[in-house]
Specification:
Layout lengths: L6 H29 L5 H24 L7 H28 L6 H4 L2 H24 L4 H17 L1 H16 L7 E3 L4 E7 L3 E6 L2 E6 H5 L4 E2 L8 E7 L6 H13 L11 E6 L2 E7 L6 H18 L14 H16 L3 H7 L3 E6 L4 E3 L7 E7 L2 E6 L5 E7 L4 E2 L12 E4 L3 E7 H10 L1 H22 L1
Antiparallel strand pairs: 1-2, 1-5, 2-3, 3-4, 6-8, 7-8, 9-16, 10-15, 11-14, 11-16, 12-13, 12-15
Main location: membrane
GO cellular component, one term: membrane
Pfam family, one: MS_channel_2nd
């Protein structure tokens, strides 16, 4: 037997011994990559389950069985083998270049659209080569026809193509991502979709669709970059006779209590002249702008009147002598068991104040400067546990009072906020002290109430 005639024997022996070894090696490699959750797991699995068996079958037909290469079954198998090779190359390229790219690199920033276009072009070129070498198809004329057709289509659709190209370049640069908030000359809202032609921005008035060519040719602001750096600026006007430092402290205190505020960034307030003040508040998200501004303007209306400041130049005449006397008679006197003489002594030193819904009435950890008696509305007492969570306590209704620790000069062990608009009577510390010094029984009663409330807070805090 001549060496040429016995060549099929070598191919058969190579397949018999080499194929199991290669499959075992690829299986172990696949398990190793799977345990490490590597991006190469899929390409190796494709190589083990499809490419190697197809290659072995192709060698068996051509080299061992010596079936002619022009046979239809061989060509079909070669076509499938070539297609699997193409898929393997694409999968390996995606795994090594893009999926394994470090964060922040240009490979990580390449949009999916670019990957899809590149994958489509490589598949087209690969299929062309397969049909050319396996089936003998002449593709030169096809490329010429496609080139001429592409020029004609490009001239016909130059506006649409221009938008697509602008969109591709903008997506490659990635000045924004899905979910970011943009402020453009035409809209302000959250990006919900970005495709080849346009960017879809969800605004408060509907869906704003901006073509990529328009967005690429104009300047816009990404309110979400850098993350959590968005700030809301609100301008308010006070009387020029109001002390600027008092106004600034009030604005900062009210802004600091907003639930939408970013906790680790303190708000700031500056005087702009002519009674105008600008307060800057860092928010968790641009989506909170509307709610934060509405809450701030509502709360500052109440707070300015409690501080005897003139928001928008207005005076507050709510605390009239008649209201003070009525609140003293119906709320304070029953709560503290006051005589008519004690009521008359306290009336000149009391005033009626108001709080807005959800506004903080008492800050935990601060020493109160007055006692507050609830005339209308309701207040929720809260405490903060060791892990920082806020736990609700009891609800104070009309006739109740808070701020007892003002007598002991100790920080309040509970916070309080208004569940609705609250009307209350406030009496400063020194006048309450004079009252309890004249009434020892009242001092004992207030001490018992302080201890009961402290016990409730400790039981919940633990």
């Amino acid at each position: 037997m001549s060496p040429v005639d016995s060549l099929w024997l070598y191919w058969a022996g190579g397949l018999a011994f080499g194929l199991p070894v290669v499959l075992i090696g690829l299986t172990e490699w696949h398990h190793y990559l799977a345990r490490r959750r590597s991006a190469l797991t899929r390409p190796v699995n494709l190589l083990r389950n499809y490419l190697v068996p197809l290659g072995a079958l192709l060698v068996l037909l051509v080299k061992v069985a010596q079936v002619p290469a022009r046979n239809t079954s061989v060509r079909d198998l070669a076509t499938v083998f070539g297609f699997v090779v193409l898929v393997l190359l694409l999968s390996g390229l995606n795994a090594t270049v893009f999926e394994g790219a470090p964060e922040g690199s240009w490979r990580k920033r390449v949009p999916t659209i670019f990957r899809d276009v590149t994958r489509f072009l490589l598949i087209a070129v690969g299929l062309t080569l397969i049909f050319s070498y396996v089936w003998g198809v002449r593709v030169g004329g096809l490329f010429t026809a496609l080139g001429v057709t592409s020029v004609v289509i490009g001239l016909m659709l130059q506006n649409s193509v221009g938008q697509i190209v602008s969109g591709l370049f903008m997506l490659f640069e990635q000045p924004f991502r899905i979910g970011d908030w943009l402020e453009t000359p035409a809209a302000r809202g959250r990006v919900v979709e970005a495709n080849w032609r346009a960017v879809h921005i969800q605004t408060g008035h509907g869906l704003q669709i901006t073509p990529n060519s328009v967005l690429a040719a104009t300047s816009f602001t990404n309110l979400s970059r850098p993350p959590h750096a968005h700030k809301l600026s609100i301008t308010t006007t006070f009387s020029i006779s109001d002390p600027p430092d008092r106004v600034r402290r009030l604005l900062v205190r009210v802004a600091g209590a907003l639930p939408q505020r970013k906790i680790d960034v303190a708000p700031s307030a500056t005087a702009a002249g002519n009674g105008e003040y600008r307060v800057s508040i860092a928010l968790k998200s641009p989506a909170d702008d509307g709610a934060a501004q509405a809450t701030f303007l509502r709360w500052i209306w109440y707070a300015a009147r409690r501080e005897d400041l003139h928001l928008d130049g207005d005076d507050d005449d709510f605390s009239t002598p008649a209201r003070v006397q009525k609140a003293m008679r119906t709320v304070v006197a029953p709560a503290l068991r006051l005589s008519d003489t004690d009521q008359d002594l306290l009336v000149p030193h009391a005033r009626v104040i108001r709080y807005g819904t959800d506004e903080i009435v008492q800050y935990a950890g601060e020493v109160p400067t007055a006692m507050t008696f609830l005339v209308n509305g309701s207040i929720r007492l809260t405490t903060t546990t060791d892990d920082g969570s806020v736990v609700p306590l009891s609800v104070l209704e009309e006739g109740s009072f808070l701020g007892l620790s003002t007598l002991t000069r100790q920080p309040s062990f509970s916070g309080a906020y208004a569940l609705e608009e609250v009307t209350a009577l406030e009496i400063d510390r020194e006048h309450i002290e004079d009252l309890v010094l004249r009434t020892p029984m009242l001092l004992q009663e207030l001490g018992r109430i302080i201890e009961d409330r402290r016990r409730d807070v400790r039981s919940l805090g633990s």
